[in-house]
Amino acid sequence: MSASYDVVVIGGGIQGVGVAQASAVRGYRTLLLEQNTLAVGTSSRSSKLVHGGLRYLESGRLRLVRESLREREILLRIAPGLVARKDFFIPIYASSRRTAGHVRAGLLLYRLLAGGSVGGFERVPPRAWDSLDGLDTTGLKAVFRYGDAQTDDVALTHAVARSAAEFGAEIRTGTRFVGAERNGAGYEVRYVREGAVMSCETSGLVNATGPWVAQTLSRVLPGPPRLPHDLVAGTHIITEGSLSRGCYYVEAPPDHRGVFILPWRGRLLTGTTERLYTGDPALVAPTPEEIAYLQGALAAHFPGLSTVVAESFAGLRVLPRSGGNLNARSREVVLLADAPLPRLISIFGGKLTAYRRTAERVMDRLKLVLPERPARADTSRLMLAMG
Ligand SMILES: Cc1cc2nc3c(=O)[nH]c(=O)nc-3n(C[C@H](O)[C@H](O)[C@H](O)COP(=O)(O)OP(=O)(O)OC[C@H]3O[C@@H](n4cnc5c(N)ncnc54)[C@H](O)[C@@H]3O)c2cc1C
Q1: Which of 61, 212, 283, 293 to mutate to test the pocket of ligand 1 (most atoms within 8 A of CB)?
Q2: In this predicted model, what pLDDT tens digit does every residue of 237-246 receive, in sequence order?
């Protein structure tokens, strides 16, 4: 007889481990299947920011920004060793598309959406510009400082997975989901581990396979609903150098897109780009054009720093399809269920920052078909420890 679970989660990125934690904490028998190692996908290729997303204000995503800012505060509280407050600087040049008034208005709204508790901002006086890590001051009109947070995406994913395991979730890496079939009370799930095909039964199935979300859905019978979406590749480069004051949010010279230049493990992380991607998610890689674009943004703002690329990596965003350019597309997570009383929930898109809230939402929907169990903790209070 095959094993039986309340919830099986497919995918060991931040969203998958988040759901496994939320499920185990609610007292459910939980299994997570990861084909490779934890955080091998998008969850190791992010900008590593725990933030509301200042730029999403430009496309009017107030709800997303407010929710992410709330989650930022929760993560700062429950994961103090993994998420740290950082100063962010926005330089405004004569050539910038965004004026000082525009940025100031955005920062005011950002503070308001944060509940006014944290995230204050200030205009950095010109006399202090020389202390900004060698930031180019030619044509510089203004500099704003505001507060946000940075994390280590891989370490955060592992910490949430450990927490899930402490509450009894079985986390199986090197285990590939190969198919699921609907039966009376849920799904019969098949997976491959060390070359052997195994199976289990589950009342609820969660597809948290990020860029593989459609591939995973194609292995479920009967065929569940689909959501038209695009995969959008984003590249980062790592270069030698250091930033002692914090993080910089600059406009890339050719198209005025916002690009982050961040301190990262004693070096610099610059990103990101956006390009439609239609290939195999496992094979996404930076292009020479993307690398040159990011080197250009770095050189334009920090002419004294090296632009020699030590490392580069690309990740894939899952963006539900809609009109407009990629930059303006909603980053809000979409949960797609197989039926009004859902047994299968697929996670499309979302933010590293909001993983906890997304997981709670998934579980709120699945609980309609799960047995009553006493909750054992609250993920908004459960401390996450460094490994
Ligand atoms: C360039 C870029 C920058 C970003 N920066 C930020 C940021 O600074 N802050 C922020 O909040 N968000 C950011 N994001 C968003 C954030 O990184 C993602 O929302 C998040 O990492 C997605 O996690 P996930 O678990 O959905 O997907 P993934 O991390 O990709 O995990 C999916 C997992 O599923 C596994 N899998 C696939 N198929 C199978 C199978 N058949 N069986 C078993 N396992 C399978 C994969 O191996 C993978 O580990 C960024 C995204 C990108 C692309």
Answers
A1: 212
A2: 999 999 999 9
